[in-house]
Amino acid sequence: MSGMERQPPQATPAEGGSSTERLFTIGQVVKQLIDEFPDLSISKVRYLEDRGIINPRRTAGGYRKYAVSDVHRLRSALQLQRDQFLPLEVIKDRLDRGTASTFGGMLQKSQPLQKPDALLRAEPEMTWEEALDVLRVSDGFLSRLAEFRLIDPREDGLSGILEESDVEIARICDLFSRFGLEPRNLRLLRSSVEREFSLVEQVVAPSLRSNNRERREEGRELLLELSTLLGNLQQLLLYKEMRRLNRSISGG
Question: What is the helix (H) or strand (E) element at residue 32, kind and residue range?
Fold first, then answer.
């Protein structure tokens, strides 16, 4: 596997850990989860660590050591990424609050996924080359996503810079490609989202443009709430189409 970290001898208890607690190296963690998550790599595990999803222990020599609880937390995060397409900030919040179950109702109560001030914070970024390493996709695939405006890399010298949301979009598009849906097929989704979001924009734009700070803050809160409602409505409409297709095919 490319990018494999040099592994130390068999795992031993970390400082302060129980003498009976089993610990794993990063390579062993990837090996445990690779069948369930084929796109998992050591680079991606390191990336999730950088984003605070997991926090492995370190030996005196600086090697990562993962407890069983770390592996469970990583599996939950990967499931939420794969099955619910949640951004990492939301995944981390759910994991920290102990509400990261991927089972349950089809649609949760409508509520903004992030606080209004999140709209003002800069997203974590990575270079084009780092994204290729984490995503394990080709340069051509990432270039096609940019060509069809599914991601918006920012030029910085000779290298493109991607925000975290762009990396997540690229990951989902890669999953679609495994079913034969290429970036050119998905570009209509970008256009559709822009058209639908214009409804939200009409409502919140006056508040966001206001010279009054409190009104701008109310506008950001409204933006998140309406965007969440729009997402939930899209999910329900998609669910109805899925049921319609299933009934038409099965005759039920």
Answer: helix 26-33
| Residue 53: how many other CB atoms lie within 10 Å | 22
Strand partners, 66: 24
Phi, psi values for residue 63, rounded to 5°: -75, 145
Measured in residues, the chain has a length of 252
Which residue in 23, 42, 24 sits closest to 34, CA to CA?
A: 42
Name the pTM for this structure.
Answer: 0.62
Task: Give the tens place of pLDDT for each residue, 165-182.
Answer: 898 899 889 989 989 999
Structure tokens at 10: 């068999």
pLDDT digits (tens, 9 = 90+) for 12-59: 444 444 445 688 999 999 999 999 898 899 999 999 999 899 999 988
Report d(CA 15, CA 60) in Å as an integer.
8
User: Any idea which residue has 């700070």 for tokens?
Assistant: 213
The whole-angstrom separation of Cα 18 and Cα 68 is: 12
Could you tell me the two tokens for 202?
A: 């009409």
Cα–Cα distance for residue pair 29/149, rounded to 1 Å: 35
